[in-house]
Protein backbone atom coordinates (compact mmCIF):
# COMPACT_ATOMS: atom_id res chain seq x y z
CA UNK A 1 0.00 0.00 0.00
CA UNK A 2 1.58 3.34 -1.05
CA UNK A 3 1.48 6.57 0.98
CA UNK A 4 -1.37 8.05 -1.03
CA UNK A 5 -3.64 4.99 -0.56
CA UNK A 6 -2.72 4.85 3.13
CA UNK A 7 -3.67 8.53 3.53
CA UNK A 8 -7.07 8.09 1.79
CA UNK A 9 -7.82 5.05 3.96
CA UNK A 10 -6.87 6.93 7.13
CA UNK A 11 -9.00 9.89 6.09
CA UNK A 12 -12.06 7.66 5.54
CA UNK A 13 -11.77 5.79 8.86
CA UNK A 14 -10.77 8.74 11.09
CA UNK A 15 -13.30 11.39 10.10
CA UNK A 16 -15.06 11.27 13.46
CA UNK A 17 -11.87 11.51 15.56
CA UNK A 18 -9.97 14.27 13.83
CA UNK A 19 -6.25 14.41 14.62
CA UNK A 20 -5.15 17.37 12.53
CA UNK A 21 -1.42 17.07 13.16
CA UNK A 22 -1.18 13.42 12.09
CA UNK A 23 -3.47 14.01 9.10
CA UNK A 24 -1.28 16.88 7.93
CA UNK A 25 1.80 14.70 8.19
CA UNK A 26 0.10 11.81 6.39
CA UNK A 27 -0.90 14.17 3.58
CA UNK A 28 2.60 15.70 3.43
CA UNK A 29 4.24 12.27 3.35
CA UNK A 30 2.43 11.34 0.13
CA UNK A 31 4.37 14.10 -1.68
CA UNK A 32 1.58 14.01 -4.26
CA UNK A 33 -0.36 17.05 -3.09
CA UNK A 34 -4.02 17.82 -3.66
CA UNK A 35 -3.74 16.45 -7.17
CA UNK A 36 -2.86 13.09 -5.62
CA UNK A 37 -6.16 13.14 -3.69
CA UNK A 38 -8.12 13.94 -6.83
CA UNK A 39 -6.30 11.25 -8.83
CA UNK A 40 -7.16 8.76 -6.07
CA UNK A 41 -10.85 9.58 -6.55
CA UNK A 42 -11.57 11.47 -3.32
CA UNK A 43 -15.26 12.47 -3.29
CA UNK A 44 -15.26 14.51 -0.07
CA UNK A 45 -13.00 17.31 1.11
CA UNK A 46 -10.76 15.96 3.92
CA UNK A 47 -11.14 17.60 7.31
CA UNK A 48 -7.78 19.41 7.14
CA UNK A 49 -9.03 21.43 4.15
CA UNK A 50 -12.33 22.62 5.65
CA UNK A 51 -12.32 26.38 6.20
CA UNK A 52 -14.06 28.16 9.11
CA UNK A 53 -17.72 29.04 8.36
CA UNK A 54 -17.13 32.83 8.53
CA UNK A 55 -14.65 32.60 5.65
CA UNK A 56 -17.37 33.26 3.09
CA UNK A 57 -18.97 36.39 4.61
CA UNK A 58 -19.51 39.67 2.73
CA UNK A 59 -19.46 38.07 -0.70
CA UNK A 60 -20.84 40.63 -3.14
CA UNK A 61 -19.17 40.91 -6.50
CA UNK A 62 -21.68 42.72 -8.68
CA UNK A 63 -21.43 46.42 -7.87
CA UNK A 64 -17.76 47.26 -8.59
CA UNK A 65 -15.81 47.42 -11.84
CA UNK A 66 -12.28 46.11 -11.44
CA UNK A 67 -9.71 48.64 -12.80
CA UNK A 68 -7.98 47.90 -16.12
CA UNK A 69 -5.06 50.10 -17.23
CA UNK A 70 -3.82 50.23 -20.82
CA UNK A 71 -0.02 50.60 -20.89
CA UNK A 72 0.10 51.23 -24.62
CA UNK A 73 2.74 53.84 -25.46
CA UNK A 74 3.63 54.45 -21.78
CA UNK A 75 7.30 54.65 -22.77
CA UNK A 76 6.72 56.99 -25.69
CA UNK A 77 7.58 60.69 -25.64
CA UNK A 78 3.90 61.55 -25.25
CA UNK A 79 4.08 62.92 -21.70
CA UNK A 80 0.36 63.72 -21.61
CA UNK A 81 -0.52 60.08 -22.25
CA UNK A 82 2.06 58.92 -19.69
CA UNK A 83 0.62 61.28 -17.05
CA UNK A 84 -2.84 59.78 -17.64
CA UNK A 85 -1.44 56.29 -17.09
CA UNK A 86 0.35 57.45 -13.90
CA UNK A 87 -2.90 58.97 -12.58
CA UNK A 88 -4.74 55.68 -13.16
CA UNK A 89 -1.93 53.73 -11.46
CA UNK A 90 -2.03 56.13 -8.50
CA UNK A 91 -5.81 55.91 -8.14
CA UNK A 92 -5.88 52.09 -8.36
CA UNK A 93 -2.92 51.72 -5.96
CA UNK A 94 -4.54 54.01 -3.38
CA UNK A 95 -8.11 52.71 -3.57
CA UNK A 96 -7.92 49.09 -4.76
CA UNK A 97 -4.32 47.96 -4.28
CA UNK A 98 -4.97 45.94 -7.46
CA UNK A 99 -5.39 46.53 -11.18
CA UNK A 100 -5.09 44.67 -14.45
CA UNK A 101 -2.73 45.82 -17.21
CA UNK A 102 -3.19 45.29 -20.95
CA UNK A 103 -0.76 46.09 -23.78
CA UNK A 104 2.02 45.50 -21.25
CA UNK A 105 4.59 44.11 -23.66
CA UNK A 106 4.66 40.47 -22.54
CA UNK A 107 3.78 38.46 -25.70
CA UNK A 108 0.53 36.49 -25.51
CA UNK A 109 2.17 33.35 -26.86
CA UNK A 110 4.74 33.47 -24.04
CA UNK A 111 1.95 33.76 -21.44
CA UNK A 112 0.00 30.90 -23.00
CA UNK A 113 3.09 28.72 -23.13
CA UNK A 114 3.81 29.52 -19.48
CA UNK A 115 0.33 28.33 -18.44
CA UNK A 116 0.79 25.13 -20.46
CA UNK A 117 4.25 24.56 -18.95
CA UNK A 118 2.97 24.92 -15.38
CA UNK A 119 0.08 22.57 -16.09
CA UNK A 120 2.50 20.04 -17.59
CA UNK A 121 4.74 20.16 -14.53
CA UNK A 122 1.89 19.42 -12.14
CA UNK A 123 0.36 16.74 -14.34
CA UNK A 124 3.52 14.71 -14.87
CA UNK A 125 4.07 11.49 -12.94
CA UNK A 126 4.33 12.01 -9.17
CA UNK A 127 7.59 10.06 -9.01
CA UNK A 128 9.17 12.66 -11.30
CA UNK A 129 7.78 15.63 -9.34
CA UNK A 130 8.91 14.21 -6.01
CA UNK A 131 12.54 15.08 -6.67
CA UNK A 132 11.62 18.75 -6.10
CA UNK A 133 9.28 18.14 -3.14
CA UNK A 134 10.60 19.87 -0.02
CA UNK A 135 9.60 22.14 2.87
CA UNK A 136 12.97 23.94 2.80
CA UNK A 137 11.80 27.23 1.37
CA UNK A 138 15.38 28.51 1.05
CA UNK A 139 15.97 26.21 -1.91
CA UNK A 140 15.82 27.84 -5.31
CA UNK A 141 13.39 25.29 -6.80
CA UNK A 142 10.63 23.93 -4.56
CA UNK A 143 7.51 21.83 -5.12
CA UNK A 144 4.99 21.19 -2.34
CA UNK A 145 1.38 21.71 -1.27
CA UNK A 146 0.79 24.71 1.03
CA UNK A 147 3.98 26.46 2.14
CA UNK A 148 2.31 27.00 5.54
CA UNK A 149 0.84 23.48 5.82
CA UNK A 150 1.64 23.07 9.52
CA UNK A 151 0.83 26.68 10.55
CA UNK A 152 -2.35 27.65 8.71
CA UNK A 153 -5.82 27.21 10.29
CA UNK A 154 -7.00 25.33 7.16
CA UNK A 155 -5.15 23.67 4.30
CA UNK A 156 -5.78 25.21 0.87
CA UNK A 157 -6.91 23.25 -2.17
CA UNK A 158 -3.81 23.84 -4.28
CA UNK A 159 -0.32 22.59 -5.13
CA UNK A 160 2.62 24.84 -5.94
CA UNK A 161 6.10 24.89 -7.30
CA UNK A 162 8.27 27.96 -7.24
CA UNK A 163 11.70 29.04 -8.37
CA UNK A 164 13.82 32.04 -7.48
CA UNK A 165 14.71 33.65 -10.81
CA UNK A 166 16.56 36.84 -9.74
CA UNK A 167 19.06 38.06 -8.85
CA UNK A 168 20.74 34.61 -8.61
CA UNK A 169 18.69 32.23 -10.78
CA UNK A 170 19.17 28.46 -10.66
CA UNK A 171 21.20 26.81 -13.38
CA UNK A 172 19.04 25.43 -16.21
CA UNK A 173 19.77 21.90 -14.97
CA UNK A 174 18.09 22.69 -11.63
CA UNK A 175 14.79 23.65 -13.29
CA UNK A 176 12.19 21.00 -14.24
CA UNK A 177 12.92 19.98 -17.86
CA UNK A 178 9.23 19.95 -18.78
CA UNK A 179 8.92 23.75 -18.33
CA UNK A 180 12.55 24.90 -18.09
CA UNK A 181 12.77 27.05 -21.24
CA UNK A 182 9.47 28.86 -20.78
CA UNK A 183 10.19 29.73 -17.12
CA UNK A 184 13.43 31.41 -18.16
CA UNK A 185 11.76 33.23 -21.06
CA UNK A 186 8.72 34.34 -19.06
CA UNK A 187 10.89 35.54 -16.15
CA UNK A 188 12.89 37.80 -18.44
CA UNK A 189 9.69 39.37 -19.78
CA UNK A 190 8.30 39.89 -16.27
CA UNK A 191 11.52 41.52 -15.06
CA UNK A 192 11.32 44.07 -17.90
CA UNK A 193 7.68 44.84 -17.13
CA UNK A 194 8.47 45.06 -13.42
CA UNK A 195 11.08 47.76 -14.01
CA UNK A 196 8.54 49.79 -16.01
CA UNK A 197 5.85 49.38 -13.37
CA UNK A 198 8.18 50.49 -10.58
CA UNK A 199 8.92 53.62 -12.64
CA UNK A 200 5.19 54.36 -12.95
CA UNK A 201 4.63 53.67 -9.24
CA UNK A 202 7.52 55.96 -8.25
CA UNK A 203 6.08 58.79 -10.35
CA UNK A 204 2.63 58.07 -8.91
CA UNK A 205 4.16 58.69 -5.46
CA UNK A 206 5.60 62.00 -6.67
CA UNK A 207 9.16 60.63 -6.69
CA UNK A 208 11.89 60.47 -9.30
CA UNK A 209 11.11 57.85 -11.95
CA UNK A 210 14.04 55.63 -10.91
CA UNK A 211 13.53 55.93 -7.14
CA UNK A 212 11.98 52.51 -6.45
CA UNK A 213 14.29 50.67 -8.84
CA UNK A 214 17.29 52.30 -7.15
CA UNK A 215 15.92 51.03 -3.82
CA UNK A 216 16.20 47.51 -5.34
CA UNK A 217 12.44 46.93 -5.17
CA UNK A 218 12.64 45.02 -8.44
CA UNK A 219 15.92 43.21 -7.79
CA UNK A 220 14.47 39.90 -6.57
CA UNK A 221 11.96 37.75 -8.45
CA UNK A 222 10.25 34.54 -7.38
CA UNK A 223 8.00 32.73 -9.87
CA UNK A 224 5.28 30.82 -8.00
CA UNK A 225 3.22 28.39 -10.07
CA UNK A 226 -0.11 27.30 -8.59
CA UNK A 227 -2.28 24.34 -9.61
CA UNK A 228 -5.85 24.27 -8.24
CA UNK A 229 -7.46 20.89 -9.01
CA UNK A 230 -11.21 20.54 -9.46
CA UNK A 231 -12.80 20.29 -6.00
CA UNK A 232 -15.69 17.93 -5.11
CA UNK A 233 -17.02 20.29 -2.40
CA UNK A 234 -15.84 23.84 -3.22
CA UNK A 235 -18.21 25.37 -0.67
CA UNK A 236 -16.14 23.84 2.17
CA UNK A 237 -12.62 24.97 1.29
CA UNK A 238 -10.58 27.66 -0.47
CA UNK A 239 -7.92 27.63 -3.15
CA UNK A 240 -6.07 30.31 -1.16
CA UNK A 241 -7.15 31.78 2.17
CA UNK A 242 -7.51 35.53 2.69
CA UNK A 243 -4.07 37.16 2.69
CA UNK A 244 -1.97 40.06 1.44
CA UNK A 245 1.41 39.52 -0.26
CA UNK A 246 4.67 40.12 1.57
CA UNK A 247 6.96 41.61 -1.10
CA UNK A 248 6.92 44.93 -2.97
CA UNK A 249 4.80 44.03 -5.99
CA UNK A 250 3.09 40.97 -7.48
CA UNK A 251 2.34 40.25 -11.14
CA UNK A 252 -0.18 37.48 -11.70
CA UNK A 253 -0.97 35.51 -14.83
CA UNK A 254 -4.23 33.57 -14.50
CA UNK A 255 -6.01 31.25 -16.89
CA UNK A 256 -9.65 31.49 -18.01
CA UNK A 257 -11.28 29.76 -15.02
CA UNK A 258 -11.21 32.60 -12.48
CA UNK A 259 -11.70 32.45 -8.73
CA UNK A 260 -9.42 35.28 -7.60
CA UNK A 261 -11.26 37.81 -5.43
CA UNK A 262 -10.13 41.10 -3.89
CA UNK A 263 -11.52 42.59 -0.67
CA UNK A 264 -12.73 46.06 -1.69
CA UNK A 265 -14.86 48.22 0.60
CA UNK A 266 -15.70 45.15 2.68
CA UNK A 267 -16.95 43.20 -0.36
CA UNK A 268 -15.30 40.35 -2.23
CA UNK A 269 -14.92 41.46 -5.86
CA UNK A 270 -14.10 39.04 -8.67
CA UNK A 271 -10.96 39.70 -10.71
CA UNK A 272 -12.29 38.70 -14.13
CA UNK A 273 -9.94 36.62 -16.29
CA UNK A 274 -9.14 38.94 -19.20
CA UNK A 275 -7.37 37.51 -22.25
CA UNK A 276 -3.87 38.98 -22.58
CA UNK A 277 -4.04 40.84 -19.24
CA UNK A 278 -1.83 40.56 -16.18
CA UNK A 279 -3.01 41.32 -12.64
CA UNK A 280 -0.83 43.72 -10.64
CA UNK A 281 -1.08 44.15 -6.89
CA UNK A 282 0.66 46.26 -4.30
CA UNK A 283 2.34 44.09 -1.65
CA UNK A 284 3.05 44.76 2.03
CA UNK A 285 6.54 46.24 1.70
CA UNK A 286 5.36 48.81 -0.85
CA UNK A 287 2.56 49.84 1.51
CA UNK A 288 5.16 50.12 4.28
CA UNK A 289 7.65 52.27 2.34
CA UNK A 290 4.84 54.44 0.92
CA UNK A 291 3.61 54.98 4.52
CA UNK A 292 0.14 53.63 3.68
CA UNK A 293 -0.33 55.77 0.56
CA UNK A 294 -0.48 52.61 -1.55
CA UNK A 295 -2.52 49.72 -0.18
CA UNK A 296 -1.58 46.05 0.09
CA UNK A 297 -5.05 44.53 -0.08
CA UNK A 298 -6.30 41.15 1.09
CA UNK A 299 -7.37 38.67 -1.55
CA UNK A 300 -8.30 35.01 -1.82
CA UNK A 301 -8.95 32.26 -4.38
CA UNK A 302 -12.17 30.25 -4.39
CA UNK A 303 -12.17 26.52 -4.95
CA UNK A 304 -14.09 25.34 -8.01
CA UNK A 305 -15.77 22.19 -9.30
CA UNK A 306 -14.11 22.97 -12.63
CA UNK A 307 -10.37 22.56 -12.94
CA UNK A 308 -7.53 22.59 -12.90
CA UNK A 309 -7.09 26.35 -12.54
CA UNK A 310 -3.56 27.55 -13.30
CA UNK A 311 -2.01 30.79 -12.08
CA UNK A 312 1.53 32.13 -11.97
CA UNK A 313 2.38 34.77 -9.36
CA UNK A 314 5.64 36.66 -9.78
CA UNK A 315 6.76 38.24 -6.51
CA UNK A 316 9.24 41.12 -6.52
CA UNK A 317 11.17 40.72 -3.27
CA UNK A 318 14.65 39.69 -2.13
CA UNK A 319 13.44 37.75 0.93
CA UNK A 320 15.87 34.91 0.15
CA UNK A 321 19.02 37.07 0.15
CA UNK A 322 21.02 37.78 3.28
CA UNK A 323 20.95 41.57 3.27
CA UNK A 324 21.07 44.08 6.11
CA UNK A 325 19.40 46.94 4.26
CA UNK A 326 16.61 48.51 6.29
CA UNK A 327 13.32 49.51 4.69
CA UNK A 328 11.03 52.05 6.29
CA UNK A 329 8.69 54.80 5.09
CA UNK A 330 10.38 56.92 2.38
CA UNK A 331 11.61 60.18 3.93
CA UNK A 332 10.39 62.32 1.01
CA UNK A 333 6.82 61.19 1.72
CA UNK A 334 6.88 62.16 5.40
CA UNK A 335 5.90 65.42 7.07
CA UNK A 336 4.59 66.72 10.40
CA UNK A 337 1.07 65.94 9.19
CA UNK A 338 2.16 62.54 7.86
CA UNK A 339 4.68 61.02 10.30
CA UNK A 340 6.18 57.57 9.90
CA UNK A 341 3.66 54.80 10.60
CA UNK A 342 6.08 51.86 10.56
CA UNK A 343 9.39 50.92 12.10
CA UNK A 344 12.24 49.99 9.80
CA UNK A 345 12.77 46.31 9.00
CA UNK A 346 14.85 44.10 6.78
CA UNK A 347 13.14 42.13 4.05
CA UNK A 348 14.33 38.92 5.71
CA UNK A 349 12.75 39.83 9.05
CA UNK A 350 9.47 40.72 7.35
CA UNK A 351 9.39 37.54 5.25
CA UNK A 352 10.29 35.33 8.23
CA UNK A 353 7.40 36.76 10.25
CA UNK A 354 5.00 36.41 7.28
CA UNK A 355 6.02 32.78 6.64
CA UNK A 356 5.82 31.75 10.31
CA UNK A 357 2.37 33.36 10.62
CA UNK A 358 1.04 31.65 7.48
CA UNK A 359 -2.18 32.58 5.68
CA UNK A 360 -4.19 33.07 8.86
CA UNK A 361 -6.35 35.96 7.64
CA UNK A 362 -4.44 38.68 9.52
CA UNK A 363 -2.11 41.34 8.13
CA UNK A 364 1.62 40.99 8.81
CA UNK A 365 1.93 44.79 8.54
CA UNK A 366 0.38 45.26 11.98
CA UNK A 367 3.42 43.65 13.59
CA UNK A 368 5.63 46.46 12.21
CA UNK A 369 3.30 49.39 12.84
CA UNK A 370 4.44 52.09 15.27
Brief digest:
The chain has helices at residues 3-13, 20-30, 33-39, 79-95, 108-123, 126-129, 180-204, 211-214, 284-289, 347-357, and strands at 68-70, 98-102, 141-144, 159-166, 221-228, 238-243, 249-254, 260-264, 267-270, 278-282, 299-302, 309-316. By secondary structure, it is of the alpha+beta class. The radius of gyration is 20 Å and the shape is globular.
Secondary structure blueprint with pairings:
Elements (H helix, E strand, L loop, with lengths): L2 H11 L6 H11 L2 H7 L28 E3 L8 H17 L2 E5 L5 H16 L2 H4 L11 E4 L14 E8 L13 H25 L6 H4 L6 E8 L9 E6 L5 E6 L5 E5 L2 E4 L7 E5 L1 H6 L9 E4 L6 E8 L30 H11 L13
Parallel strand pairs: 1-2
Antiparallel strand pairs: 2-10, 3-4, 4-5, 5-12, 6-11, 7-10, 7-12, 8-9, 8-11
Helix pairs in contact: 1-2, 4-7, 5-7
Describe this structure in words.
This is Fe2OG dioxygenase domain-containing protein. InterPro entries: DIOX_N, IPNS-like_FE2OG_OXY, IPNS-like_sf, Oxoglu/Fe-dep_dioxygenase_dom. Residues 219-323 form the Fe2OG dioxygenase domain. The strands form 2 sheets. The protein has an 8-stranded mixed beta sheet. Strands 6-11-8-9 form a 4-stranded antiparallel beta sheet, with no helix packed on it. It has one domain: Sandwich (Jelly Rolls), CATH 2.60.120. It is globular. It has helices at residues 3-13, 20-30, 33-39, 79-95, 108-123, 126-129, 180-204, 211-214, 284-289, 347-357, and strands spanning 68-70, 98-102, 141-144, 159-166, 221-228, 238-243, 249-254, 260-264, 267-270, 278-282, 299-302, 309-316. 30% of the residues lie in helices and 18% in strands. The protein is α+β, with helices and mostly antiparallel strands.
Amino acid sequence: MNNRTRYIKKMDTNESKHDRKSELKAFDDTKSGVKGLVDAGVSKVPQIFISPPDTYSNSNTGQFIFPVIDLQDMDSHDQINRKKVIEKVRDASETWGFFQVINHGVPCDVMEEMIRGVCSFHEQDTDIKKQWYTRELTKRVVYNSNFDLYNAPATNWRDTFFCIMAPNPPSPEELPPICRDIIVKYSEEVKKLGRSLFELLAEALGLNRNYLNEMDCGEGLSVVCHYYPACPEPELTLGASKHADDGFLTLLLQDHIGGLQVLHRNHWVDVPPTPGALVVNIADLLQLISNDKFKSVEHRVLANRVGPRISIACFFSTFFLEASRLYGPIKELLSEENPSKYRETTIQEYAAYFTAKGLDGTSALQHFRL
